[in-house]
Specification:
Layout (H helix, E strand, L loop, with lengths): L3 E4 L2 E2 L5 H12 L4 E9 L4 E8 L1 H18 L15 E10 L3 H19 L3 E5 L10 H4 L3 H8 L21 E5 L4 E7 L4 H11 L4 E2 L17 E2 L6 E9 L2 E8 L7 H15 L5 E7 L4 H15 L7 H12 L9 H4 L1 H6 L21 H9 L7 H21 L7 H39 L6 H42 L5 H26 L5 H32 L1
Parallel strand pairs: 5-7, 6-7
Antiparallel strand pairs: 1-4, 1-5, 2-4, 2-5, 3-4, 8-12, 8-13, 9-10, 11-12
Helix pairs in contact: 1-2, 2-3, 6-7, 8-9, 13-14, 13-15, 13-16, 14-15, 15-16, 15-17, 16-17
Amino acid sequence: MATIIECVPNFSEGRNRRIIQAIAQSVRDTDGATLLDVDAGADFNRTVYTFVGNPDAVVEAAFNAVRTGLQLIDMTRHTGEHPRQGAADVVPFIPIQDATWEQCIELSHRLGKRVGEELGIPVFLYAKSAQRPERVAMPDIRKGEYEALEEKLKRPDFKPDYGPQVFVPRSGAMVTGARQFLIAYNINMNTAVKGKAHGIALDIRESGRAKRDEAGEIVRDADGRAVNQPGTLPTTQAAGMMYDARTAQVSMNLLDYTKVGLHHAFEEVKRQAALRGDGLGVTGSEIVGVVPKQALLHAARFHCEDTGAKLPTSEVAQMNLAVEYLGLSDLYPFKLEEKVIEVMLEGGTVSPKALPPEPPGPLMGLGVAEFTEVLASSSPAPGGGSVSALAGALAAGLAAMVARLTRGKQYAAVEGEMADLCKEADALRERLEKAVDEDTEAFNQVMAAFKLPRDTEAEQAARAEAIQEATKGATRVPYAVMELGLEALRFCERVAEVGNVNSASDAGVGALLGLACVRGACFNVRINLKAIDDESFAEDWHRKARALYTDAQAVHDRALAHMERNL
C-alpha cells in the first residue's frame, strides 16, 4: 500500500484569481503531487488548498506553493474576516494512508527549515510538531494576528523555530506542523448579526469564554488573569464570522472529528440557537475544503438513529443523506466527487473544482459562459440584481430586433416609428448593461462598509452609518433598474402590437424578460429595505417600488395579449 500524506495550506488571498491560480499551478507542476481541492473565500480573503502524494512530493509541492504565495501576496494590503498572520498562513501535514505521525512531523521540520533559510521568513511549529506547549494550538501562536506580529517578534519568548526573528511586512510569518484531519465546518445562521453567531461560538468552543460572577463581573485568578468557562464541545475551535452581508456563521475547526463530529457540532449549534429564544436558527452548513467520508457516514448513522429512519445500504446513499441532513448545499451545491477525499481518490485522475472566478474587468465584458461561471460561483455577487438588469437589457435588445424587422410596404405606416424605437431601445439596452455592473458594485460597497474597523465607539458609529448609507445606495440601484425595465416593457408592448407578426414570439419573450427584470429588481429593493433603520426612507421607497411593479404587470399583460393575437 502506497504512503499517502495530505497537505492543506491556507493562503491569505481569496479574491485575486490570478494569484489563486498561480499557487494552484505550482502544486500541479510538482511531480507526484495531486491537487484535490481549491476553496477560495472572498469575504475571508483566504484560500485553502488540498493536495496529496508521497512524502517527498508533498513537501516539495508545499514549498513550491509557499514560494509562489510569498512572491505574489502582500500582507500590508490584506483585509479579511479570517484570522491570519502571514501570506502562507498555515501549512499542515496529515497522514492519510500507510503514513505515520513521525513522517508528517519530519516533513513539517523539512519545510520549516527550507522556508526559513531560502525564503527568509519566521516559521513556527504547531500541533504535533510543536516544540513548546504554548505553541500546540494555532490561535495561541496567531493571537493578535498580523497586526501584532511585529511587536511579538521583538519578544525573546517568541523566537521562531526556523527562520529569522524579524518582521517581514510583506509576508508575515508561517506556521507548519503535523495534525489530525481537521474539518473546517461553518454553520449558517438566519441572521446578519455576527455577534449572535459569535455568542454561540463562545459557548461551544473548547476554550469557552470568560467566567462571570453573579454581578456579571469577570472572575480572575490570583494573578489577575481571566478564568475561562469551558465550552460544550471539546477539540473544537469556533468564532462568529460573516459569510456575506446577510449570513452570519458559526465558523469552526473540528480538530478531531472522531470525538466531535459534524453532527455533534450541528446539533449543538441548533440547541444553543433555540436557547436564545429570539427566533435565531440554523439554515444549513458548509464544509471548507475536503472531508473524509467517515465524517459523513457518522452523521448519517446519527441522523437515522435520532429519527428512527432506516439507514441506506450503500455508502454513497448514506453520504447523500448526511448532505441533506446537515444542509451542506445551503449556500452552493455540495458534490461528493469534489468534497469527499476518498471519492476523489477513487475517481482516478482528480481535477480540482472550479475556482470562484474573478472577472477580468466589468461583468458585461465577459462572454456568456464566463458570466454564468462567475454567477454560479460561491461568491454572493453578481447575483439576482445583476441578472435582473441583464434580463432588462435582453428585453430591450429583443424590442430593438423586432423593430428593425418591421419594415416594407406592409409596415409603411409604422416604419418611421419603429426606426425611432430602435434607437431608443438600443440606448436603453446599453444603460441596462451598465446597471449589471452597477448592482454588483453597490453590493460590494455594502460589504466594504461591513469590513470597516469597530474597535472604538466612534468607529462603531461610523461603521453603522456607512452600512446604512451603502444599503440605501444598494436600494436605489435596483429601483433604477425597475424604472428601466418598465421602459423596456413598454417597447416590447409596442412592437408586439404593431411590429412584424413573424416576430410576435420574440416580442413576447421580451415582455417576459422585461417583467422578470422589474420583479427581480423589486425583490432586491425589498430585501435591502429590511436592513434600513430610517422608517420614512423605507416606507417611501417601498411605496414607489410597489406602484412601479403594478404598472409593469399591466404593461406585460397587454404585450402578451397582443402577441397571442399574432401567433
